[in-house]
Amino acid sequence: MRLSPLVCAQSIILLAIFHCITRVFSRTFILNAARIIEFRIRNDLFCCLTKLDAGYFSRSRSGDILSRFSNDLTNVRMLTGFGAMSAINTVLIYSAAVIMMIRIHPALTFWAILPFPLMVLTIKKISHRLFGRSLRAQEELAQLSSQAEESVSAVRLIKSYCREEYFQQEFGKTAERYLRQNLRLARLRGLIIPVMAAATGSGTLIVLFMGGNLVISGVITLGDFVAFSGYLAMLVWPTAVLGWILTLAQRGAASMSRLAGILRAQPAIADHSGAQPITALRQGIEGRNLRFSYGETEVLSGISFHIAAGAIVGITGEIGGGKTTLLRLVARLLPVSEGSLFVDGRDINSMTTTSVRRLIGYVPQETFLFSRTVSDNISYGMPRPVAPDDVKKAAGQAGFLDDVELFPDKFATQVGEKGVTLSGGQKQRLAIARAVASNPPILLFDDPLSAVDAGHEEEILGELGSFYSGRTVLIVSQRVSAFRNCDQIIVLKSGLIAEQGTPTELLQRGGLYTEICRRQQQTSE
Fold it and tell me: By three-state DSSP, how is residue 423 classified?
């Protein structure tokens, strides 16, 4: 039955409208799904990073991690979005075109599409090499990002030592390696299009030769030949897109393998099954043959001690003796062996990590401040909502209130990236204020007064002296003046406890602690 021209025109218009609507909604649906996948992977990555221990970050460069969050996630999104949409489109067009070609002449269809399987086999071999080169190119990009991030962070140090030219040369070398890897990748990708063009061109030649003979012999009509050629032409663009899809697939696979490195990483510090929270410290902290090693280097060689609840303990000794490591073990920032560290009479591994850390106010040796206001940095660990009076009180206890009053915006003053607008002493005092603001029962101070002058040291120690009441305090310091309120001193040497006792007892023994005091007295004089 022949359809009237009007009915044919209406059908074409309806099909065009249906195609337009389908195309718009399919693109929206698939691309939105890709964005959602990217969003979820990014959240999972960040959650994994927050759970990993400090050891992982000491082995990984921050620029490499940031590269995975940006470049690698973009590659995965492109694969699951445009790649998936183009793959579906290619399959549908190929299926429809081949079916219509078979209806016209099956044998001609076989010879016309014969080059395509050969093309697929060739591209498959190329894509195996494409994966390796994509992975190396992305690793070079991570190296480039790490170097750029490190140089920006240390720009003041670079300028102070006049090393601008050296770092420019180093960055240039890294950028050149990245360029070489991308050029190698581009050359390999460049082979895909000629291979596909050869396949489609061969198919066209076959159709012209065999199809022309079939038309001459009357096997098919001229209209069938034109329609057949049109269907074959429909395969040209999907074939070209197929090469792009294969490239996206290899880059996406390489990126996903890098992302999986973070997602599969397991923290060295994790709650054991059946771990119970701790809510208070009543019996103190005890170490029993406590050991710890960084790789093959043993830092603590089996020390034993007991710190009563509410005691103020100073920890000093030679550099590299394990002082900072001991504080990190107590704070559950490093993995602890079973049966070697006890808090409130319980093995620290039997407690949930979060509950242990919530009991602790920790001032690390390297002060880190967020690029926010003074108030935000002080109230970082405080429960919400934060009372301004509590923030002000914490600043006063750290001897930082007078400095804040001199700032143009008081507690609303922005401290800049990593506290760049503050002096070293102000950063330390702000960190102390942050530690005491949450009113923790345990305080861990890792050399908190190293950048503080003598005048502010007296003020801080005086304020903290009253705050120490009823709290368990561990102070690591090279300044014996910081131990004036201490009930006990632990002196570490080569990972062992060289001396332990009250300040008076240690001075009477005339050992290592006495020598440290004598040297500092001579320096002061």
Answer: coil
Token pair, residue 80, equals 């699951």
The β-bridge partners of 317 are 492
| CB 459, CB 399: distance < 8 Å | yes
Burial category of 81 from C-beta neighbours within 10 Å (exposed 0-12, middle 13-18, buried 19 and up) = buried
Residue bearing tokens 């073990």: 329
Beta bridge partners of 445: 363, 475
Q: Do 234 and 51 contact (CB within 8 A), yes or no?
A: no
Dihedral through CA 330, CA 335, CA 339, CA 340, nearest 10?
-50
Distance from chain centroid for Cα 10:
56
Pick one of 1.25.40.10, 3.40.50.360, 1.20.1560.10, 3.30.70.1350 as the CATH number of 5-263. 1.20.1560.10
Q: Provide the whole-model pTM.
A: 0.67
Instruction: List the beta strands (DSSP E) in 214-321.
Output: 285-294, 297-307, 312-317
- Selection from 292, 294, 293, 275 nearest residue 343 by Cα: 275
Instruction: Tell me, letter by letter, the H, E, C secondary structure of 210-227.
Output: HHHHHHHHCCCCHHHHHH
Q: What does the pLDDT look like over 98-142, one tens digit per residue? A: 888 888 888 888 887 777 777 777 776 776 677 677 777 777 777
Compute the distance between CA of residue 193 and CA of residue 456 in angstroms, rounded to an integer.
Answer: 71
DSSP class of 471: -
Task: State the Cα–Cα distance between residues 183 and 133, nearest whole angstrom.
Answer: 10
CB 406 within 8 A of CB 434: no
Could you tell me which CATH class the domain 274-359+441-511 is placed in? alpha beta
Omega of the bond leading into 385 within 30 degrees of 0 (cis): yes
* pLDDT tens, residue by residue, 47-98: 888 777 777 777 777 767 777 777 777 778 877 877 777 777 778 888 888 8
- Say whether domain 367-439 belongs to CATH 3.40.50.920: no
The phi, psi pair for 384, rounded to 5°, reads: -90, 150
Residues of the chain with CATH 3.40.50.300: 274-359+441-511, 367-439
Cis status of the peptide bond prior to 115, with omega within 30 of 0: no
Q: What is the pairing mode between strands 312-317 and 472-476?
A: parallel
Number of Cβ within 10 Å of residue 145's Cβ equals 22
Please give the distance of CA 357 from its chain centroid, rounded to a whole number.
Answer: 22
Instruction: With H, G, I as helix, E, B as strand and everything else as coil, classify residue 34.
Output: helix
Strand partners, 177: none
